[in-house]
Amino acid sequence: MEGLVLGSADAARSPVCGPNSTACSGDPPSGAGMTTGICHHESMASASASASASGVTGSHGQARSLAVGTWVVDLDGVIWLAGDPIEGAGAAVGRLQRAGVRVLFATNNAEPTDAELRGRLAVAGVTAGADDLVTSAHAAASMLASGSSAMCVGGLGVDEALHSRGVRVLPARDDAGVPDAVVVGLTHDFTYDVLRVAATAVRRGARLIGTNDDPTHPTPQGLLPGSGALVAAVATAAEVVPELAGKPHRPMADLVRARAVDVTVVVGDRPATDGVLAQRLGVPYALVRSGVLRSGDPGGTDAEFDYADLAALVDAVVGP
Ligand SMILES: [Mg+2]
Fold it and tell me: Which pTM value belongs to this model?
């Protein structure tokens, strides 16, 4: 009973929309790599893992009951780690799909474009349909009406999601005017001027929407500031409480429900996001200790299922 884990997760790079940048102009970068244009980057963690699979919570009988419906599966720390596919994860997704289980991927990483994420899934050996991916960028865009306007303080993933929603995207510049909303996600181009322009727009009446409020993201160098830190900076400067889009908040839950009416379980490495999302959806939470939590780390005690990694969980559900 217990899994092991190893390090952290997440990294990627994508553009941001700074005061003097054209980054929010919309065109996603070409290529399937993780590096994209100018708008923001998030570095990912690394860590290696070896995981001795041994399920923890949940009997095998209980686990087998999960072999139906739709699984909501996190990406960072579940499918890949530090940008590298986690051993066995892609094959595990394939076994689930062959057993008739649909897999809906849900990530708080708003930086990459959909094409970038699909490219990374393909590298990990995962096939995902057009409707099988939801991100906190999608969730943030879903909070805005088509035809509205938004100042983008985030990466290309945010920019793309807003455009797809029919939202007019404005750069974070003094001459941008007052948009309906300021949407903040992780960006490495976050400067005092971006903060000043974004906070001023909010003070003048724009909604403040954060893609997610994760305070940090883990990297080989340790924990680095996450999207939540940037959202908090704008909220503090504007003296407002931000609206939040990604896991575990309601917009992401609503997006998941819109994509799947038969969710069986939420699988992820972060109890505070994936576990709480499962609660919100009213389904069990399966913790996998291949990301932010390692075997023996405290936390995750409320998880109905607790496994070393996705491969171990799928072994218990549909067999090796
Ligand atoms: Mg994760």
Answer: 0.81
